[in-house]
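Running this now, will post back.
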Amino acid sequence: MNTALDTLTRMTDTLAACQQGGLPQTDMIRQWRSDAASLPLPEKFGLVLGNLLDRIESSALFSGESCSFSQKDLFDNLQLWADKARARLSSL
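Update: finished.
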């Protein structure tokens, strides 16, 4: 497997650990920001990811679900981002 796909796998493993409560959101976000910077993806991927991670950070200010933020939906969108990134990286 190539390095970029290995990095993406590590990122999705971290996301799963966070969703299961085994890793703090701040640690997951820090890793995603760091690792995503090394992925050879178009700029739009970085913009979308930055927006998602910012919203996840903001959602941490609320306990559980609020009318403005759904952590579950944000995590689902982060997984969707990872799926699209994997497809893009696999085609390189």
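The chain has a mean pLDDT of 90. More later if anyone needs it.
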